[in-house]
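=== Structure Prediction Worksheet ===
Name of assembly: unnamed complex
Input type: mixed (protein and possibly other molecules)
Chain count: two
Listed entries:
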Amino acid sequence: MGVLLELIDLERTYRVGSEDVHALAGVSLRIMEGEYVAIMGPSGSGKSTLMNIVGCLDTPSSGVYRLKEREVSSLGDDELARVRNEEIGFVFQTFNLLARADALHNVELPLIYGGVGPAERRQRAEEALHQVGLGDRMKHKPNELSGGQRQRVAIARALVNRPSLLLADEPTGNLDTRTGDEIMALFAQIAAAGRSIIVVTHEEEVAARSRRIVRLRDGKIESDLPVAPQAQTLAAGG
Amino acid sequence: MAIDFKESTGIAFQALRANKLRSLLTLLGTIIGVTAVIAVISLVQGMNQYVSGKLLAQGSNVFWIDKIGFEMDNDKIREALKRPDLTLGDADALASALGNKAYVKAEASTNSQIRYLEHKMQRIDVKGVSGNFQQVDDQEIENGRPLADLDVQRRRSVAVIGSEVAEELYAGLDPVGHDLQIGNRRFLVVGVAKKKGSFFGESQDRYVQVPFGAMLKLVPQTPSVTIGVKSVDAGRFQQVQDEARAVMRGVRHNRPGEPDNFGITTPEAFLSLWRNFTATAFIVVIGVAAISLLVGGIVIMNTMLVSVTERTREIGIRKALGARRGDILLQFLVEAVVLSLVGGALGVALGSSIALIVGVVSPLPAAVSGVAVGLGVAMSALVGIFFGVYPAARAAGLDPVDALRYE
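=== Predicted Assembly ===
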């Protein structure tokens, strides 16, 4: 397994009024392909900023970010868009589906921006929806779907372009416990199939499903530990 | 560039349907602008076809010489009226000078009451003609015979009548061979002219044509004549005109350097007046259309800016999924253009309807042309592009992190 991504001494500074806020103050991290990592930390710890940079939505003020051995920290807007399209699948707390479009069209979006033709696009989107168990809901609009189903659509959309990394931000935050468990079970399946996953969360139960937990505090890594196998079993069992 | 066309056009139509009144107000400026353009172009083009058609029907190689000529200025007309009258003698001199190069006719007319039995018509144009009137006028006879040279020479009291006179006065009866009372003189109808139709709502078939000498008996004094000249060879029209002018200057004793004391009118003069008139109409319409489209465009821009703000989060999502600046820019541009094209289509429909209705209820003809429709559509599309660029650029420039965080 190769290196999926590498962060070296990453800093991100925001200017608020006349003051500089160090959201990230020197983060170095290496994640291998196929890893399932949880990033935790209290609010203000910098985990959202880290997620934005890892997801290529934002660029660091200084430091290096290499994704699949490519330096992406200094790319321009359109190049970053391409990287997001090809390498990263996002799953958000609030699902972030387009309300006017049906499930199928939502899943097709990354393929549209990836320049995939209509026929192949449709076929791949249908396939992705089948994989998350929504083969019979393709023509439903988001408001005709339950929260769990919406998140499944979002996961299908995240995976449809076969990204290197599934990047989830509080994926169970807007779901009840049972539905949240279902979604996390789906994540476990996806990880078992070899896809790299990073979950940003503040819920210990969610993080316990991963195999490695990185904790942030005040813009720095506080701890970086593998998850004990029994904890995983416990979490899976409970 | 990957653009979500289905989404963009779908969203535009959805927005239009969702709030019909707001949509109508949004598109009003565009609708008015395009309507004005279509309606006026259609009317002016229709009239252009009509006018040139009528003028060509009259013979494009005919020109007229009279006291005043083609003059629109009242003061100049008043001045020209003081010139010596044109006479039959002038026409004869012209005819002999031009020889077989041209046909020359002379005509003078008066208004008179005409009567057959108890049927009467008031203020009918009674034309006295002489010379080659048949060739110059291209007159066609429906029934009976035209006036003959002998009729003119002998000043016979015979008449050829227009088709409308025949219908109204003789009501079904064949007028040929019957009496016609003009003023207090009795004429014999020898022919009925073929129907010519109307020119700007004015009938061209309400007239009586008599020999020049016979017409003189109806008027207290000899009026100034109008001379019509038709070049036999259409290619030498200008040359014949120049010669006629020289002859007329001689006959009417114009010294070198002195202006003509007569006027020459050509179909070209009518056409150029007409073109001036329509050019003015076009300028007015372009002004109205430009203002409407400007206002319409600003309203569309405002609507698009509201739309961009409302959909900030959507833009964030699209960017997260890999949409580049250009993709977002194009998406919002397409929306703006679809919006303005809908306005343009409504304007085309409305403008065409107006033109067609005017064509039906008034004598003014209208022809809705492909050019006008194309222009209307192109203008509305340009408005969409021009006024859609700024909102679209704002959308495209949004930062994905901020946009995703937008509530």
